[in-house]
Design brief:
With 493 residues, the protein is α/β, with parallel strands linked by helices. Helices cover 36% and strands 13% of the residues. It is built from 15 helices and 11 strands. Helix 5 packs parallel to helix 6 (182-188) and helix 7 packs antiparallel against helix 15. This is Glutamyl-tRNA(Gln) amidotransferase subunit A.
Amino acid sequence: MSNLNNMTIAAARDALRKGEVTAVELTESCLSQIEQADALGAFVHKTPEIALEQAKAADARGHDGADLNGIPLGIKDLFCTKGVPTQAASGILDGFKPEYESTVTNQLFNAGAVMLGKLNMDEFAMGSSNETSVYGNAVNPWRRSGDEAYLTPGGSSGGSAAAVAADLCLGATGTDTGGSIRQPAAFTGITGIKPTYGRVSRWGIVAFASSLDQAGPMTKDVRDAAILLGAMSGHDPKDSTSADLPVPDFEAMLTGDIRGKTIGIPKEYRMEGTPEAIEKLWEDGTAMLKDAGAKIVDISLPHTKYALPAYYVIAPAEASSNLARYDGVRFGHRAKLDAGDGITEMYEKTRAEGFGDEVKRRVMVGTYVLSAGFYDAYYNRARKVRALIKRDFEAVFADGIDAILTPATPSAAFGLGEMIDADPIQMYLNDVFTVTVNLAGLPGISVPTGVDKDGLPLGLQLIGRPWEEGDLLNTAYALEQAAQFVAKPARWW
């Protein structure tokens, strides 16, 4: 078999079980593609020796058991991996090699998965375009028709999205604080799910905003997302926010039958200035779900308009607190000091050298909103708005809504450099359809369902009830079957 790297996780699993391929052959195919794809900037720490060792061990075990045995994956640089550089794409963690494994990667490796390397991302997961990375930009494998301009793969999980879309790996891990799995998935024509907050352990994942961060899979289709999410999920006593709930067999729940389900269409997501292609995509997706037997209902989420400002108070506040540890004393790079410099100068120089501009911006905003005199005016008010947003969702789910359909992004992928130097607020608006899901702790999934006039992929988002990822994945599966999105980027790298 040729082009083994193009396989889905499910197809590779079945081929491994039948003895049609070996884990070593799968891994070598991916490693070969990775070596030819440096132009994408997706893999920033390659681990071919580890990958081949894990693949040989998977073949030795045999492939009758775990779904992921011998499956080559990419790991976002936010997940601590023992003995392998883990920088969160930041200069302040240059040279850091953890002595421990994150819970997620530990579970994946225990399930037999193969690590091809670490993937690019925005620094400390702060960004929507993968342009804040100390490694340089990740690049979307898609291009506009007749245009050779480099496009963003989205962020912060841009390296993960680019790697999966370009078939450099069979799947990848991502994290989502305000849309960082779903937005890059939509920009690159892949599937990405953010599970319910607490479904997947955060232990060993470098923190951005602890009450919002959640890890999830980025895959080539919905079935693969179900398989990978099952392996990543589960209670972890090392994470105080981890839910002690059984993990269903998500893949077994993929019937595609959504007859009798009620899908909500929130009027507040119909925003002025939304491109015609996004509006049409949403209408088409609604029609697809209706044709599949679902009932379509208009709903209201009245506090949606306050979600973005609330998010950009809460997330920087938590980032300011979490990143205080990187001071050159407890953790991280320490700047070279001049004679006579004291501890204040050491802190200032270290953090100025170690952090990029976007991280500094968010740390300063977060410190400001947490400071005396502003805590109640900004942070506490944002927390109250968050509670109202959560209550909006609880109300519509209590009224019998099974899932909510919205656009995943306000546009297709934009060009690298087009927004990074503009008003930061314009970049933040990329999260307009996704941040509510994090604020409410709900599961959300992005499914590719069409292309725009330039041939770029577009995704729709489904938002589900808490802890009902299986039902959400099944609705996404029905949408995927109806959309029949099979487009792939033309190889140029």
